[in-house]
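#struct-pred

JT: dropping the chains for the assembly here, can someone run the whole complex?
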Amino acid sequence: MTRPDHDAPTSPTGQAGPIIEVTNLVRDYGGLGRKSRRVRAVDHISFGIQPGEAVGYIGANGAGKSTTIKLLMGILRPTAGQVRTCGLDPMRRRIDVARQVGVVFGQRSQLWWDLPLRESFTILAAIHRLDPAAARDRTARLVDELEMGGQLATPVRSLSLGQRMRAEIAAALLHSPRLLVLDEPTIGLDVLSKQRLREFLVEERRERGTTLLLTTHDMGDVERLCSRVLVVDHGRLAYDGTLPGLAATVGAERLLVIDLAEPTRPLQDVPGARLVAVESDGLRQRLAFDGARTTAAAVLTEVSRRATIRDLAVEEPDIEDVVRRIYASSAGQR
Amino acid sequence: MRTFLLLVRAGFRRHSTYRLALLAGTATNSVFGVIRASVLLGAIGSAGTHIAGYDGPRVLAFVWWGQALLGVVNLWGFQEVGQRVRTGDIAVDFLRPAGPQLVYLAEDIGRAGVNFLARGLPALLIGALLFDLAWPPGIGSWILGLLSVAVAVVVAFCGSFIVNLSAFWIVEIRGIRLLWMITTGFLCGLYVPVPWFPDWLRTFAEWTPFPSMLQHPLDILSGRVDGAAVWGTLATQLAWAVALVVMAQVVLQSGRRRLEVQGG
Ligand SMILES: Nc1ncnc2c1ncn2[C@@H]1O[C@H](COP(=O)(O)OP(=O)(O)OP(=O)(O)O)[C@@H](O)[C@H]1O
Ligand SMILES: [Mg+2]
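RK: done, full complex below.
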């Protein structure tokens, strides 16, 4: 995992400053006269993303993630607040923004349905006014890295979901954008396809330093790709920081799985730890502890006073569980 | 420009994949051509030797060029853009560094090209084999006539594009599309030549863009309009094309401003 480099100097095009800057952004849906049916999808969100960062934008269904992305791209007009993408107002400078950003909406396709996949790349290269030779090279690289050589002659409508998603990502990267925005790129993919896609993205970012903004419900994506997470909840920003920090914030517990030399009574009295489960007559016991208050070493010392430890494993908090806690806690406030 | 041409080519390829539909279209066109030719010839026969500048060969040219252009000029309109607005897929179009109007126009020109080759020329050939139709009176009429067809394609596209864009404001646009189809079919001169309309209706039609979508190219190609008058006809068409291109752009921009993309 890479660290967020908040002090990245200048972007490839020489523009300094954040690549995304959002200030008090608000977006309502629903007709003007129908106040009762208005939905506030984005509610005073502010954040900045520096060139080169990889940010996971996570939140429950309907939290406002896709809406935010549409605001960033100038597809939707903000109800209030400010958006700057690549230093530009996306509503006014939509085309200039589109030249520098690649976007994939997992549920929509940007490819030409009836045509062989190859044609989509040709057309997109033309729309982006790429030099034909450079476009050929770039396409060849992407096709090679995403292992799509066998599908170039296949009409897009006949591609499998995984194949299409790889094609979508290649299409979004064709013009070598500074910023890649992926809205649920792994939706519906099997484990292996997800894995390959993540590896590709890690590689692509390492080579080109592309900034990444990723929306997903798959915490594996976030853990593997993002050094920073933004959690939105009911249109509001609930957390902005690192992934381990997120776990710490909600006080998620780490888990010690201890295998003992012989059956032992339940270890209920270990200071700083909470007994979660006892298995095989006490041969294996699970202890949860709060990483902010004590350490795994301290817990182990206490356990070894009571029994002989044969083997152990530490389980990190499940991120989905962490996020669930955030949602739950803010739902409680409502 | 290269972008535009590549998009035209893509439209051409995309529509040339539907070979069977094209073949069926040609067959239907020809059958209807024979029927229409007989009906209009009959009308001229019962009125004397000609009606409003149309004699037998000219009315045959009107019918068969009309059948040939039926698939070329998008008289019936399309629905794809309206559907994309409705489903929210239009969002993807706005992610590209190009105007959607240009992208869709290019595709429609490609579609027109396919239809000209695959449906237009065969229909014309069949018409010429079965009937004694008038040909454009000179090389100038050929060139300006085909140019007039190209402008007609643009006019028809923009009209239907605007109809489709109404989906930004109205959820169900099938009614509007149907109205557009009926109005176009009638006022563009497809069924009956516009010059045969009663005076009041002809005057009305001449103040709409519909004759620019079919009647005007047919006038030039059948030789009913000849000499300097051709330029006037072409100018009328061009004026409509420019007006509709601008109007479509205005509608598209205001639609974008009030867009509420449906779905994720
Ligand atoms: N076109 C629309 N009209 C009305 N309300 C909408 C529209 N689009 C989204 N919403 C509402 O705005 C809120 C945020 O939607 P959004 O699509 O941004 O959520 P999301 O975080 O992307 O969710 P998901 O994870 O399900 O994709 C939801 O309450 C949704 O119902
Ligand atoms: Mg979404």
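JT: nice. Chain A has ten helices and 13 strands. The domain at 253-316 of chain A is CATH 3.30.70.100 (Alpha-Beta Plaits).
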